[in-house]
Amino acid sequence: MPVSHVIGLFLDPKGEWRRIQEKNYSVPACIFGHTMILSLIPAVSGFIGTSQIGWQIGAGAPVKLTVSSAGQIAVLYYFAMIAAVVCVGVVIRWMSQTYGASQPLSTCMVLASYTASPLFLIGIMQLYPLLWLNFVVGLPALGYTAYVFYSGVPIMMQISQDRGFLFGSAILAFGLVTLVAMLAVTVFLWGAGFAPVFTR
Predict the structure, then answer these.
(1) 25-75 pLDDT tens trace
(2) N or C terminus: fewer CB in 10 A for the chain?
(3) Which domain covers residue 12, as residue numbers?
(4) 199 in any annotated domain
(5) pLDDT tens digits, 108-127
(6) Span 22-32, pLDDT tens digits
(7) Taking the model in full, what pTM does it have?
């Protein structure tokens, strides 16, 4: 099962990337066996955290979303994460030709999906939506995600370390643009009637 590689990416990223490459997973195996499973963690955690626990602003009472509003946002959040992974995988495939690292779409999708593993796992912190705590824990997870990605690019794309660094940096820049785009879409959806509904 593709999700079984997650522990290995924490214990021995380079060795695990080699094992992942040897498996030669297809796009459906990667998406259904890894991305769609792990992306449930932040989506479900966010739903529980915002509807059942809530967050505090100063010394006031906890602020919560209604169950229906939190559920709607969780579903959109879930599919947005899957779409982001697919989008990054497609861009890796597209940009790989520029760096002389042309690989099949399945390899590029696996690289994008497994790179996101630390971010999916740290999504459990959304059970307790305290901004400073999520920031303190999320920042190291983001750094480790970058390390996992840079470790995997030369192995999965079969290029040198130097070229892999340049290629990886270009993809990370695209990832940041994708994140900003997702935030812009969120603002648009809120204005279109999908704004969160708070409990009274």
Answers:
(1) 999 999 999 999 999 999 999 999 988 888 776 666 778 888 988 898 899
(2) C
(3) 2-194
(4) no
(5) 999 999 999 999 999 999 88
(6) 998 999 999 99
(7) 0.88
* Integer Rg of the chain from CA: 18
Residue 142, domain member (yes or no): yes
Nearest 5°: the CA angle 178, 182, 187 is: 150
Q: Is 178 exposed, middle or buried (0-12, 13-18, 19+ CB in 10 A)?
A: middle
Counting every residue written for the chain, the total comes to: 200
Say how far apart CA 34 and CA 17 lie, in whole Å: 15
Grade residue 76 by pLDDT with cuts at 50, 70 and 90.
confident
Q: What is the dihedral of CA 47, 172, 36, 109, to 10 degrees?
A: 170
In this structure, is residue 200 part of a structural domain? Answer: no
Total domains, the chain = 1
- Residue 180: inside a domain: yes
Cβ within 8 Å of residue 194, ≥6 positions away:
72, 73, 76
Enumerate the β-bridge partners of residue 63. 55
